[in-house]
Amino acid sequence: VQLAESGGGLALPGGSLKLSCKFSGDTFSSYRMGWFRQAPGKEREFVASVSESGTYTNYMDFAKGRFIISRNNAEDMLYLQMNNLRAEDTALYHCAYEIGRGSYQIRGQGTQVIVSS
User: Fold this and answer.
1) CA angle in degrees (0–180, nearest 5) for 81-84-88
2) Cβ contacts of 51 within 8 Å, gap of 6 or more
3) What is the mean pLDDT of the chain?
4) Residue 113 and residue 9: Cα distance in Å, rounded?
5) Could you tell me which residues come within 8 angstroms of residue 13 by beta carbon, excluding any fewer than 6 positions away?
6) What is the pLDDT of residues 51-101, one digit of tens each?
7) CA distance between the termini of the chain
8) With b meaning 16 or more CB within 10 Å and e meaning fewer, what string describes 89-105?
9) For the chain, which terminus, N or C, has the lower number of CB atoms within 10 Å?
């Protein structure tokens, strides 16, 4: 499996960004997918996940009401719509696929998000 993230960049506080992740190398619709992030000097943390069909989603508290995870199984794409961005959302964001119950594998380089005025 390979994953390629894109869509990061510089955003103003209160602004929005939409991250994308292209999945390849296996059957995308067979995997639960997630987004993780790592801020400078901090541990990597879970952001959100989506079930194989896209029906069920799960978010960390900081993402609830601001971020939306979605997927397009026909195009092997995962997305993270981020709204009302805050400075503390600044991080390197990675998509990942689930390899076991609650365990995820990161494969891509990530996409950098910087929220600053």
Assistant:
1) 95
2) 32, 57
3) 97
4) 5
5) 85, 86, 87, 115, 116, 117
6) 999 999 999 999 999 999 999 999 999 999 999 999 999 999 999 999 998
7) 37
8) bbbbbbbbbbeeeeebe
9) C
